[in-house]
Design brief:
By secondary structure, the protein is an alpha+beta fold.
């Protein structure tokens, strides 16, 4: 059985923060930024991103800060700030370096103990929010907390209305765009090259996809959310079978997007 001290987050008054690394060196500024956020000072969020999730990179301080992000999200009055805190927590959680950081962190148990609360908040807010972009980012956060990190990294493509990847067969850059039929794969950005070669995606999920559980989970979350009707309609295509319009190589679109996001 874990000792209580092992699942208790690092105290914000602890001198140990100064010995943890963040993007700029010592993490001694992190406690003040976290306290500011608990008090509703939203401008501290951008500063905190720079310290503990700089350009997607995470650090020992990121692990220690995670449970404080979740507890702050539970007490702030602003729904926008809560969504921002959960998005930052999710960005840490979906990092490809998370396992490495957890293995070497004395605060790993406290981190893991905070994840269920983060998931519960993200799902609760997802059921209430009416803005499409907010819903997409909350869905992305919830997917990460639910254990579907690979799919979560891809979902921001719904906000950008574009998914990009390299063809697993020939390596050419591919652009996946929404079309009335579902999704289409092009060999160049359709905005700048309307005449680019295209191929329609076949709805899935693909039988042997490693992402089938993620599809079922996402389908269940989006089924009753009117503001995500377009996302729900295109999910079978995102998890479907694509073909490179350049070399003809057929592949599972979501599996390729997940692998491309890790590469």
């Amino acid at each position: 059985m874990e000792k209580l001290t092992e699942i208790t987050p690092l105290d914000l008054d602890s001198a140990a923060w100064a010995s943890l690394a963040d993007a700029y060196g010592s993490a001694e500024e992190i406690p003040l930024l976290l306290q500011d956020l608990r008090q509703g000072e939203a401008e501290a969020l951008d500063d905190l991103y720079g310290h503990i999730c700089h350009q997607g990179s995470i650090y020992p301080a990121s692990v220690a800060a995670f449970p404080h992000l979740v507890s702050a999200a539970a007490v702030v009055a602003s729904s926008d700030l809560r969504a921002g805190l959960l998005s930052l927590a999710a960005s840490i959680h979906e990092s490809t370096r998370l396992d490495e950081q957890l293995q070497s962190s004395p605060y790993a148990a406290a981190y893991r103990a905070a994840v269920p609360a983060a998931l519960a908040m993200a799902l609760a807010d997802l059921a209430r929010v009416e803005d499409r972009l907010d819903s997409i980012y909350l869905l992305k956060a919830a997917a990460s907390f639910a254990g579907f990190d690979g799919a979560a990294r891809v979902l921001s493509g719904f906000a950008d209305e574009e998914f990009c990847l390299a063809c697993p067969g020939c390596g050419v850059d591919l652009y996946v765009w929404p079309v009335p039929e579902g999704l289409s794969v092009a060999t160049a950005d359709p905005v700048f090259t309307p005449s680019a070669k295209t191929a329609l995606v076949t709805a899935g999920p693909v039988d042997n996809s490693a992402q089938r559980d993620a599809f079922a989970w996402l389908q269940a979350q989006t089924a009753a959310l009117p503001c995500l009707d377009d996302v729900a309609r295109r999910l079978p295509f995102l998890f479907g079978s694509a073909r490179c319009a350049e070399c003809g190589h057929a592949f599972s679109l979501m599996d390729a997007l997940v692998n491309d996001a890790v590469a």
